[in-house]
Amino acid sequence: MRRISTSLSTSELQRTMRNQEYRLNKVSNQLGSQQRIQNLRDDPIAAGHLVRYQSYVSRINQFQKNAETLTDKLTVAEGYISQSVDIIQRVRELAIQGANGIYTKEDMKNMAVEVDELLKELVQNGNAVNSEGSAIFGGTSTNRTAFDVISGPVDGSSVSYITEVRYNGSIDGNKFEVDENAYMEFEPAGNKVFWAENQQLYSERDATSYRVSKDSVISIDGKEIKINSGDNVYSIISKINNSDVAVKASIDPVTNGLNLSTTDAHQLWLMDSDGTILNDLGIIKDASQRPPYNLTAATKVSGGSLFDAVITLRDAMLTGDTETIGGKALGALDRGLDNLVTRLAETGSLYSRAQQNISRNEKTVLDTTARISREGDLDFSQAVTDLKLLEYVQKATYSTASKLYSTSLLDYMR
User: Fold this and answer.
1) Cβ 373 vs Cβ 36: under 8 Å
2) Whose CB among 58, 184, 185, 403 lies 3.0–4.6 Å from 173's, allowing a Cys bridge?
3) The 3-state secondary structure of 70-114, one letter per residue
């Protein structure tokens, strides 16, 4: 039973008017923001879905930006690699001409001048930087030039020429997250892109009696391989060959030393991550030396870079050595050209995959945005109808209240 008092009707009327004002204000806010959900309590389930969808769209947008950044880098790198292919093709033409043996020494020296200029252009491509000023082919070492150039005197010439080009970057790739827990890695390491031949290392230290003294870890081309205490050289060879690195190990039949050979054209990157195994086997210096130029003086190395191949050709032209031109130099150029074309194809494949990710992410954003609209967007026509109805009800309430309480203090003033 409710108690009827003098203030009851007034309180009920005020409460009803406040509720009407609240509903009117809510619809007005919805129209202003174009959002159906103003507070979590309006629709808790839909609000939870909405938060997850919005978070997902934010992540997808970032994935798309990552893929677009990757395509930009791949486009620039592809341009320099393609130009390098043209350079090597021209150098190869000169090598074929020089190997004919019909040119005079003066003609050969003139050819050597052009080869040297093409070498400089090739080095310039290797040390190219992008719009951000970062080295393209330096791996993750982007704040310095990818290759160091050493000049000096050369037989057959009185002027200084480039005598050696040394890689100054890293072998680490840049990873780009293009989807949930999905990464694309761009590996623009110059000692892979601008390499000509498979590299081979020959250690002259007898390893047949070697035993690992403690659990150790060796690093080959950035991949770590665990070696257990008590393992002999044959166990080490087996673990290297069973790993996923592009390197094969073997025992030299003459010196009984450990031999390492790459299965594709790149420069070996060797480190003792934990322990001294590679140092004990006479391949690298102590751990304080930085790869790739940490090999011991006793380690024999074969297989060089594209720069080495072009330098060999130029020097042979300066001395008129047609045998080297048509043999060693031309063979190295052919292998280097094959490697460049392979790297160019890899870059193009990565670009195509990145574009596929961009297209997929664009569609995913559209689909998820539709879900966000379904959960959170306002039905505009319904909201306008509700607003007009609430305004009409409010006016009617005000009109009724004014008639109920028409008596005022002025009625008692005579």
Assistant:
1) no
2) 185
3) HHHHHHHHHHHHHHHHHHHHHHHHHHHHHCCCCCCHHHHHHHHHH
Percent of the chain's residues with pLDDT above 90: 59
Buried b or exposed e, range 50-71, using 16+ CB within 10 angstroms: beebeebbeebeebbebbbebb
Split at pLDDT 50, 70, 90, the class of 400 is low
pLDDT of residue 141: 81
For the segment 113-130, what is each residue's pLDDT rounded down to a tens digit? 999 999 999 999 999 998
Task: Report the alpha-carbon distance of residue 115 to residue 107 in Å, rounded.
Answer: 12
In order, the DSSP letters of 124-152 are HHHT-B-TTS-BTTBTT-TTS-SEEEEEE
For strands 247-251 and 300-302, give the pairing: unpaired
* H or E element that contains 365: helix 330-376
User: CA-to-CA distance for 173 and 189, rounded, in angstroms?
Assistant: 7
Phi, psi angles (nearest 5°) of residue 33: -95, -10
The answer to whether 227 and 243 are in contact (CB under 8 A) is no
**Rounded to an integer, what distance in angstroms lies between the CA atom of residue 335 and that of residue 197?**
6
